[in-house]
Amino acid sequence: MTVSDIRQILKAQVYCEGDPDREVHTACGSDMMSDVLAFVKDQSVLLTGLINPQVVRTAEMMDMVCIVFVRGKRPDDTIIELAEERGIALLSTPYRLFTACGLLYEHGLRGGCEAP
Amino acid sequence: MNILQMSYEVPGDDFTHAGEASSATKRALKKLGISPAVVRNVAIAMYEGEINMVIHAGGGHIDLSVTPDAVTMVLTDHGPGIPDVEKAMQNGWSTASAEVRSMGFGAGMGLPNMKKYTDEMHIDTEVGRGTTITMTVYLNKA
Question: What are the structural domains, with CATH classification, of chain B?
Answer without folding.
Answer: 4-138 (3.30.565.10)
